[in-house]
Structures are given as C-alpha cells and as structure tokens.
Amino acid sequence: MSIDTAVDTGLGTPGSLKLDAKVPDGPLAEKWDTFKENEKLVNPANKRKFKIIVVGTGLAGASAAATLAELGYQVEAFTFHDSPRRAHSIAAQGGINAAKNYKGDGDSIHRLFYDTIKGGDFRSREANVHRLAQLSVDIIDQMVAQGVPFAREYGGLLDNRSFGGAQVSRTFYARGQTGQQLLLGAYQQLARQVGLGNVKLWTRVEMLDVVVIDGRCAGIVTRDLLTGEIVSHAGHAVVLATGGYGNAFFLSTNAMACNTSAIWRAHRKGAYFANPCYTQIHPTCIPQSDDFQSKLTLMSESLRNDGRVWVPLNADEARPAHEIPEHERDYILERLYPSYGNLAPRDIASRAAKRAVDSGHGVGPLKNGVYLDFSEAIGRLGREVVRERYGNLFEMYERITSENPYGTPMRIYPASHYTMGGLWVDYELMTTIPGLYCAGEANFSDHGANRLGASALMQGLADGYFVLPYTISNYLAEWLNKPIPGTDHEEFRRTELAAGDRFRRFLSIGGTRSPDYFHRELGKIIWDYCGMERTAEGLEKAQSEIPALYDEFSKDLRVTGDGESVNQTLEKAGRVEDFFELGMLMCRDALDREESCGGHFRVEHQSEDGEARRDDENFAHVAAWEWTGDPGKPIRNVEPLTYEVVHLQTRSYK
Amino acid sequence: MAQMLSRGPVSGTAAGPRRKRKWFLLDLYSTAVGKKYVMAITGIIGIGFVVFHMVGNLKMYLGLINHDGERVYDVDVYGEFLRDLLVPILPRTYFLWIMRLVLIGAVILHVHAAYTLTILNRRARPVKYQSARDYQVANFASRTMRWTGIIVLLFLFWHLADFTWGWFNPDYARGEVYRNVDASLSRVPVSVLYIVANIALGIHLFHGTWSLFQSMGWNNPRFNEWRRGLAAGLATIIVVGNVSFPIAVLAGIIEHPAV
Amino acid sequence: MSHLANLTLRIWRQSGPADDGRFEDYSIAEISEEASFLELLDILNERLIGEGKDAIVFDHDCREGICGSCSLMIDGQAHGPQLGTATCQLHMRKFESGVTITVEPWRASAFPVIKDLMVDRAPLDRIVEAGGFITAETGGAPDANLILVPKPVAEAAMDAAECIGCGACVAACPNGAANLFTGAKLTHLNVLPQGQAERLGRTEAMVEKMEEYFGSCTNHGECEAACPKSISIDVIAVMNADYLKAKFKNRRLLART
Ligand SMILES: Cc1cc2nc3c(=O)[nH]c(=O)nc-3n(C[C@H](O)[C@H](O)[C@H](O)COP(=O)(O)OP(=O)(O)OC[C@H]3O[C@@H](n4cnc5c(N)ncnc54)[C@H](O)[C@@H]3O)c2cc1C
Ligand code: HEM
Ligand code: HEM
Ligand code: SF4
Ligand code: F3S
Ligand code: FES
Question: Could you tell me which of A513, A526, C115, C132 has the fewest CB atoms within 10 Å of its CB?
Fold first, then answer.
C-alpha cells in the first residue's frame, strides 16, 4: 500500500543504524548536570547565525521556540492553527505535576521519578524520567513568573491536589483549565518574541515533509492552507512538537485536527518510530451518543475521587438507575480492586468498564457506558460541597447530555486519550535523523507503557523550556560557519514535487467516499483490534483489513473543491492516508510485543484474575521501528532498558 | 464586500519605532479610550447643568414673591442672581460667562468625540451582517445615543435662540424669564418640540449615566448594581421635571399677565 | 432518542476574500437532538461531498469549548442562542423542528472572511504581541511560592484569563470593538503581583494596538452576553482605569501601587 518507495536519505541501509541513547555516565541523579557541564556550547554572538525550525506551537513547541529565540537563535515557528493559542494543549484539564513538596507530605524528585517509572509499567528510560522529575520544579517557577493563575490557598501560597497513581499531593492546577492557562503562558512568551521580531511565526501552514540531505535534516516542506502554496524552508535544525496520534482511533478525546502526519512523514524519511502500540485509554469520557459523533469529551479523572462506578447486575436491565436497588448493582472497581477501588489506574479502570459493557451490562440508550454515581457522595458531603468540587464538570456534562448528574448518575466509557508512543529520541531529544528533534507528546517520551495523570504537560514544558535549549547547541556547535544546503537544493525540489503530486492525486481519484468515511472505518478497525484489549488473531486480522481498506481509499476517495484555496477535505485526506500506515505499524508493534504492559494489554498475557502480565525477560526494551518503504515490512530495532536504580516489580493496585 | 487578506510569516509586530507622543492630554484624546473619558466627563458636566437648570426652572412654580419690597417672579430673581454670582469678586455676569464657556466647550468636545468615535465604529464593520441581529442586552437607548444626542443638540440651538437671543419670540423681554417661557411655550408646536427633546435627553441619559461609570473606569462590586437604578432615576427626574414646564404653560398653571 | 425534523439551514457561502458571497439554503430532513451544531454541519458536508459539491468551510478543533476556534453567527447571535456556550458545545436540542437557522461568518474589518464561515482573527494575536505578556525569560524565575497571590486576586485573574480568544465579543459588538478581549487579557495580567512591573506600559501598548484594528466601546454590553466564558464587562472598566493611569502616573513610582 506504499505510494512512493523510500527515497535514499543517506542514512544508509535499513537496520544499519545502531540505537545509541547517548545517556551520560555517572550516578542517575547527576546525569543531567554531567551533561550540561560537558555539552558543547554556542557563544551568544554566534547563536544568531543558526536558524532553527520549530514545527508545532503547543506547550512543547511554543516554549521551545520562545526560549530558543530568547537565547538568540533565529527561530521560525509553524502551526496549522490560526494561532498558537489553539494547540491541543489548551484542552488539558486536570493539572501538572511537580516535585515541589509544598504540602510537606514527603514528596521528592526521587518519588516523582519512581511514580512515573512505575506508572509507566517499567518501560521507560530511567535517565529521561529522572531528568523530567528534576525539571518539574523549575517549570512551576517559570509558569508562575509568566503569570499563570494557579489555584491558591488563602494565605497566597500555591494549592495542590492529588491525582491518580500517586500517594502525595503534587498536582498544580488552574480550575479545570490547567492546560489552557499553561499554554497561554507559553503562547504569550512566544508572542513577545514574535513581537520583538526574534521569531517568524507561520500560521495556517502545515508541514508536509522533512527534507534529509547527506544524512542530516536540512529543512521542511510546507503547504499554506489558505492558498495551497507549497514551499521549502531550510534550517540548521528542525524540532517537531506536533502532538499525539490518538485520532488514529477516529473517536478520541483529542481535538479534531490532531494527527500523525508530521512525525509519520519524518518516520518515512528515516526517523525511527518507538512503541506505536503504547496508547492510553482514559476511563472517564462521555459515551458515544450516535454513530455520526465526531469526537468524545473527557470528564476529568478527579471525578473518581467521589464517584462510584457501577453497572446493573442484570444484563438486560431496563429500569432507570434510581429504580435499581442496591443489591442489584455491581460496583465493579470496588469489587475487583478493594484497596484502590474507584481510584484504580486508568488502564485498569478502563478494562473493567469495557468488560462490563462487552458482557451486556452496559447502560444508557446504546448500552455503551457504565454509571459514575455521586448519590453516595452527595449524601455524605452534601450537594454544596459536591458542587464546589465538580460544579463545572457537572455543567459540562449536562450541556452535552442534558442529564443532571446531581439527580441521575453520569454515564462514562473509556476513550483514546493519549499516545505514549512516538518518534524515538535519544537523551538529547534527537531522532535517528541528525538535526531532527522531537518534543512533547510527539516523541516516545518518558511515560513508558502508560502515562500518569498530569505528567504530559510537565513533559511538554520540560522538553521545550529546559531540555532542547541545552541539548540543541551540542549539535549545532559542529555546524558553526559551515555552509548548509539552501532550498534551491534538488532534494527540496523533489520533496516539493512529491508533496504536490500527492495532493493532486487525492483530487483526481474522483471516487464516491469522503476522507471522513475512511477515517471512521479505519478507526473502527484499530479500536477493535488494537484498542483496550488486543489478541494475536485480532491483530493478524487488522494486518489484512487495513491494507484492504486502504486499497478502497486509494480507489474510491472523493475530495471535492480545489487545491488553491482552503480545502479542509483535502487536508483531511492527507492526514487519513498517514493514519493508515501508522495503523499498520501500531498493530504490528502490538502483535510483536508478546506481553501485557500499561496501556498495551494482550489477552494472551494475563494472570488468572485478568491482570496484565509483563515479560521483563524478553520485552524490557523499546521497540523502535524503521521504515523500509513497505508499511507491511517495517524493521524492528530495539533499545534495551537497563535499570540502575529501580527494581522491576509487578504493579498491583488490589 | 471584498476584503483583503495577506499571507506570510508574522514577525516584529511590536518592534516598530514607538509612535511619537503628543502632549499627554492631546495624546489621551487622540485615542478612543481617551475620547470616552472626555465624553464621560463632558457628559457629567452636561448632567450637572441639566439638573441645576431644571431645579432653577422649578422656581417658576413659586410664581410671584416679595423681593426688595416689590412683587416679582422668583425665577427672574433667580436669573438675576445667576448674573450677580461672585460679585464683587468678579464684575457682574463674568462668572456666568465662565460657566457658559465651560458648557460650550463641553458640548463641543462631547459632540466632536461622539462624531469621531462614530466614524471609527462605522469603519470597524464595513460589511454589515446580512441577516437580522438578535441583540441580547444592547438596548434602544444604547443603540440610539447618536440620534438622541443630535436631537438634544438641535433642541439646544432652538432653545438658545428662543430664550437667550429671543429670535423667534415676538414679545421676548430680556431678563423676564417667567414671561418668556409663557410666551414661548404657549405655542403648541414649541411645547411639543420641548417635550420630544426632553424625552430624547432622558433616553440619552438613561444609557449615558450608566455608561459613564464604565468609561470612567469606576467599577466596584459595592456600587455596580446601583448604576442602572441611578441612571433610570436621573433620566426620569429630568424628563418629568422638564416636560412639566410646557404642560404647565399649556394648562395655564404658568400664566404671565402680559402674554 | 428524539429527533428534529425538516430544518432549513441558510448558510453563508463565499469562495474567498474577494468574492461577494451569498446565502444558500440546505434542507435537513432529520437530525438527532443529541447532535452538536457542528456535527450537523459535518453531516451536511458529508452529503455535499457525496453530491460532488464543495464542503462548507468553518473553523473548529477541540469541540470542548476551550480552543476558541469555532465561531459562527447563528440566528443573529454569536455562538448561537445558548448563553455562555461556544458553538461547538451547542446542541440541536436547543432548536425546534421546522425552523430556519441562519448561519453567517463573523463580520468586522479586522476579521476578513477567508472562505464560507471561516474568518481571519489574527489581529487578536497582534494585540497580545504588543504587550499581552509578563516578561520573564526562561530560567530566571524565583521559587513559585516567593510570590504570594491572595486567593481573591488569583480568582479574579483566572476569571479574566478564561478568555478563549474566539472573537465573539467583536462579532457581537455593534461597534466591532475588541474591548472585552483586550480588557480580559489586561485584567488577567494587571491584577497579578507578577504583572505590576509592566502594568502601565502593557496597558498603553495593547489598547493602542487594539485601536489600530477595532471599533470603540460605547458600553452596549453585548459582548458579555455573547462570550462563551461569560467574561464580565468589568474588565473593560479595569482596562479604562489603567489606561488613564498609563497617561498620568509617574512610572518611577510604579512600585508603590
Ligand atoms: C482532553 C485532554 C485532557 C488532558 N489533560 C491533561 C492533564 O490534565 N494533564 C496532563 O499533563 N496532560 C493532559 N493531557 C495531555 C496533554 O494535554 C498533551 O499531551 C500535551 O498538551 C501535548 O502538547 P504538545 O505540545 O506536545 O502537542 P499539542 O499541544 O497537540 O500541539 C501540537 C502542535 O503542533 C501543530 N502541528 C501538528 N501537526 C502539524 C503539521 N503537520 N504542521 C504544522 N503544525 C502542526 C499544531 O498546530 C499544534 O500547534 C490531556 C489531553 C487531552 C486530549
Ligand atoms: C448637552 C446634553 C448632553 C448630555 C447631558 C449628554 C450626556 C452624555 C453622557 C453622560 C454620555 C455617556 C458618556 C460615556 O458613556 O462615556 C453620553 C454619551 C454620548 N453622547 Fe451625549 N450628552 C449630551 C449631548 C449630546 C449631544 C449633543 C450629542 C451629539 C451627537 C451626544 C452624543 C453622545 C454619544 C454618541 C454618546 C456615546 C454613548 C456612550 O459613550 O455611551 N450627546 N452623553
Ligand atoms: C422645558 C425645559 C426647559 C425650560 C423651560 C428652559 C428654560 C430656559 C430659560 C427660560 C432660559 C433663559 C434663562 C435666562 O436667560 O436667564 C434657558 C437657558 C438655557 N437653557 Fe434651558 N430650559 C429647558 C430645558 C433645557 C435643556 C434640556 C437644556 C440642555 C440640554 C437647556 C439648556 C439651556 C442653556 C444652555 C441655556 C442658556 C443659559 C445661559 O444663558 O447661561 N435648557 N432655559
Ligand atoms: S472575551 Fe469572551 S468572547 Fe471575547 S474572545 Fe475572549 S472568550 Fe471570546
Ligand atoms: S458590546 Fe461593544 S460596546 Fe463595549 S461593552 Fe461590549 S465592547
Ligand atoms: S471548537 Fe474549540 S472552542 Fe469550539
């Protein structure tokens, strides 16, 4: 199903590249300082000689672009939104973690580090996670200085709340809009640099491809969404901060525009794609109400602090919730996980809900959800306290479902929410293409096989504010006063042409079905076979069904309109095509990873009582996939995960 | 309806040479927010005058009184009193003239600001909405400020010509306020003009008095909820008070023997 | 699940900034009450593509009322009939069967129509670039708890900071003024202790940049009614007060405020 076979990127023959994470030596806690002491620097006067291209202006991209510009580099930032303010980071609700220990409840950098490793089911790189925990502290300082209105105590000190997977209160929040406030902070800092003329900001411009010349990332090719114009941009280094690929499932809590194209195109040019099967399903989302539904809405995890999850014991229950007597209710989480109860981690809670619905105990008009019941909490705390805690969430729920959670229990169901997988990066956030960096949700990140709540914002900002600005000079230093190929180089021309042809192709197929139709169908396949529970034979099926559907796509796609003015149908077509190839890889990765860990649950690998069973013998490694030109035949490279400090153990939340 | 749209990267949008500043008051007035301050302040002066003026005119209801041993109309005495203000510190009518100059200045500024802001706002939406708007809170008063204002302005010209310069009034007698009012307002069309104009003024002030708090940046939970009431009350008082005069004249309550 | 029957959508179609544009009618035989307004447009677009016609272009992304992408003048109201709700959160149950729903792009000289219902809201970014930030370059920040922010102040800042930059205030304002947006941005930063150092310069810069693009405020209050975050026009008063200070105050004494 590949369109064009792999162009020679000068990266040598597939499989030849040795994965080196470039983790500094020395004790874990000192690695980051060791790195900073030994890295190559670029002196201030020389910084302006380097041009850095930043694709994506979410938390990771905006903070990186702003900081690099402050340091004196020439920065060009790209976003397909009309403003950096729109990036999907804006939707984050719950909060952001930091090992400040302001509550004096025994939090520490090491504890945050350990919780994150454990939460990730021991599938992440120790050194990165520890650095993340160290930097979490600086992030809060920086964001407060930016004017982010975090929640406060009456005395004026910062307030914290607790979040899933941790025994301490270390989550900083701004009402239910933490992501919005953090993004506004980073965006305003970026806006300042744009205003000062240190950043060139391109809005409504989509990156179509990266250009690799002589084994080094030389720049990108973009398309102006308003005019269709395709142009090249050359630079000394390129940073991809283009977010996650959760929309591969079609229905997800991600914004409509979230897609994989940027990192996928980079993958096709030689960047390895790590752990694509590590996707996170969030348990508390509003169930689908209709088959035309375009997107699912997240209800903050915090609801599980007081809500009780239950389903009717009787499979074909017809009565409304309040008429079902206690003894005919099954409080699944409390029954299965007595100690953690309704606060069991996301992956575990999600599977419990899925099983209840699959076994016919689902509730709601489509029998596709489970109850999240607050009546007990309202009885215990009183309506007022509950309103104080969850008022805005209840309103949002009522706005969408027209049901009042104070009276009838909420209906929730798991949905795709976050993708731990992404482009493989080393300790310096560089991909396997020299000069191409990847930050934020787009890289395979520090979350291993499962991300803890409130840690993605932390990672995006750590990458952008405090990691990239240091590590990038380590690469750039070598290029001081060395000429780099400009956009007149024929590789740029070739890439531009290929990109143009691709869009002309979509317009010329002239079939009968819209890109959305195919996205929906593809999403169903990936959700069914590579969703919350995965089986070998299901994944095998996917291996054949996806290419079949892709065949249809390439024959029966219909894109109306033209390529010279705004054409959202055309944009969508390109993104869907990339989801096809990514979907293949996700299923392949899930198939080859013969274990269950975190978000990746293989039915074949579970304990008697249905818990995930890891295989540390054979799978304590990162799977970094290499593009060969044929989506059916990718090459699986591995980066072994060695643990100096933590000892692997089975997660138990019973 | 064609509009322009430019493409390309944005950069240096705030880097340009700082626009050169005039003397700070002119600088303030050169901006829309500044003009709103001027409107509000001149508006307040206007309100002050109108209230003061109405109270003064109410004296007409007191009719004749004894003054320095002779029977005269209270308003006339009052008119005289205005001319004598601050005598002997200032010669006669000087202070009255100072007040008049302030008023004239206020009206000019108020109208100029209103005019320039109106132009600005027209330019801000060259292409109107093609379907009907469904306003939620913008009320009749707020949307007709310009028209009620203009009516008041026109009224003012007539009013001065009538009572101060005595152009349209055959038996106008300088200084004899009571008589002039009767003479003028007993002509029905004139009374109607007065009634219409004062209702317009009332509407203008209904929004204006509320609005000026915003424009002046006077905003405090302690009194915010009173603003509407205050505006409504003031507008009503002005309208009732002022409209009562033409009616009183027609009804013969204000009656001058010489007319 | 109940449905609405035979709706008529009068939608503004405009091929580009240069085109004059016109309304076109589309009849919807049936639509579920559960559908959001944008899902209605999705369905219509699927149909149009099926008929080989151009899909209707409109801005949208998060569909959770937080990104500020969605716009739309629906039956003469910015973001439609539901108070404090962005278009993407508006559901069909707010409408009745048989009605005609008119959908228009937002109109202001600063918001040129790009295509159909999509407009360019870049001038809002220009206002922020002019001063809508606190200068705190990465790295130099003191410990977060060294800056005490009284709870009421944090709440006030947050109330203003909720602005999603959708531009509905401009669209709804009879004068095409952006005072609510600018006031919200300024109030967020100007009430916080961190924001004091640049307070007056910021106010001056943002207000004057705003006036390059937008109309002036005559306190209609329409913006507050249209704002999906119900931001109060109090922020406009705060902005006006600070603007006057910016002109009069001796900035060398700023630290005393
Ligand atoms: C509903 C929801 C709630 C969440 N809540 C939390 C939470 O409480 N705590 C937490 O820690 N995390 C949370 N997350 C996760 C977190 O929000 C994201 O992981 C994080 O914000 C990602 O930031 P980012 O900068 O990497 O990417 P994004 O914010 O998605 O930014 C992507 C950027 O890339 C640009 N872009 C993408 N592709 C291209 C292209 N081809 N060309 C040009 N530009 C492109 C986009 O325009 C955008 O600017 C939540 C996520 C969701 C969906
Ligand atoms: C002489 C009697 C007048 C009085 C007492 C008066 C009073 C006021 C007041 C108090 C305001 C509110 C100011 C603010 O909100 O900042 C106002 C606004 C306004 N006035 Fe007048 N005005 C008078 C005459 C006029 C005239 C002659 C015009 C001429 C057109 C006019 C036009 C306006 C306009 C357009 C506004 C703007 C609405 C607003 O700012 O809210 N007014 N006036
Ligand atoms: C029915 C209501 C009113 C009556 C009966 C009335 C009557 C008068 C009279 C008799 C005078 C002459 C006073 C003198 O020469 O000593 C006068 C002057 C004046 N009136 Fe009125 N007036 C009325 C309403 C108004 C209103 C609404 C305004 C303004 C908006 C106004 C503005 C003036 C001004 C500016 C003068 C000139 C004052 C001066 O000469 O210093 N009047 N009015
Ligand atoms: S103030 Fe309200 S209406 Fe205006 S942009 Fe912000 S959120 Fe939108
Ligand atoms: S509607 Fe317009 S006039 Fe002012 S109060 Fe709002 S900006
Ligand atoms: S689509 Fe994001 S606010 Fe409506």
Answer: A513
